[in-house]
Structure prediction request, 151 residues.
Amino acid sequence: MSKSHEYYMSLALKEAQKAYLQDEVPIGCVIVLDDKVIAKGYNQRVKKERTFAHAEMIAIEKANKKLGSWRLEDTAIYVTLEPCPMCAGAIIQSRIQNLYFGAYDPKGGVGGSKINLFDIKFNHQVNVFGGILEKESSDLLKSFFKKLRDK
Prediction:
């Protein structure tokens, strides 16, 4: 029996919590194949001083290594925040089948908030589903930014 989308998003939230504890913007991600988590990642841009160290990019790299392929066909990616343009491009290019995200990002999300990059007809189409554990994802982000403002 397959696990629920909320279950996998809760695992992504655990990854986001790791980022939170390291004073990183709390975004987490898991990639699933055949009802098994094959890769996890959380935001590490500050720690690694790398533009590309977004949760999705880290998880995609781990999944590539685990599967020995750049193609992540038949996988699902769960991320706590609507992807940015860079991560959306990587999701499309890696051939991920389904994207599930938590909170919407009205400032930079391209899964429907600013634009919907996934609506453009590329060589691969990703199925997109937003709002999975949206409140939990949003609350974690709000808590993080409140903590920053209070410093």
